[in-house]
Amino acid sequence: MNYLIKTNARGDKRKKRITLIVVVVVFLSVIWASFFSGIFSSIGAWIWSGENSLSQSIRETAEFFKSKNTLLAENKELKDRLQTMTVDTLAVDITRQENKELKEILGRNENRSAVLASVLRTPPFSPYDTFVLDIGKDKDVQVGNYVFVGGTILVGEIVEVNPTSSKAQLFSSPGKISPVLVGTRSVSVEARGLGAGNFEIILPREIAIQKGDSIIMPDINSMLLGVVEEVDTDSAKTFQRVLFASPVNIQDVRWVTVVKSGSLR
Question: What separation in angstroms does the CA of 244 have from each of 7, 112, 124, 234?
Fold first, then answer.
């Protein structure tokens, strides 16, 4: 009987121990699950937040490049429009200048001292800085006649005459030497052609000359040949180098006047 009581007591203790262990395991499992659930929840939130941030960054970058490309396209369109407007304005200016010259000359007249000529070819399409004109012996053009642009700007002289055409050599032809007057004292010196309407003068450093001064040809009613563009003065040198150019763009000349011999005096 005592043996049965002891056996039952042992069984009850074992049950209580097992129950306690089960309770402890369950308790620990609940705590462990809660702990990792929080961690996983935090990790998930961090990943979600990162994905949102990355998506936002990608969207912002895409918008940036889209805006930049739009601005570049608009900028190109504006440049194209400006270029078109510039070309149109230039065409209007050229037409206006030609019209002005034609009005000043009032057409070709055999009894006048000057005759209008159309320029068929200009540099670089004509050799050695020359103009090919559409008048010749038919308009009584002679070798040595002076050629003007706008009736006032001297650019060259006739060097070859054909029945219905002629050739004018520009005073700016490379290496061509021409007598000129420079500075406020109208000092007589020689100018050397550099091509395309450009000239060079070498003169003593003490002669006063500055940018914007006029260069004229002597004995031709002081007709304008060019305007000083640069003065290279070196205090260590005895001479100064003066660069000047024709007031007109030689490549753009379409009309000239040929002044006949003896009409300039």
Answer: 132, 32, 20, 18
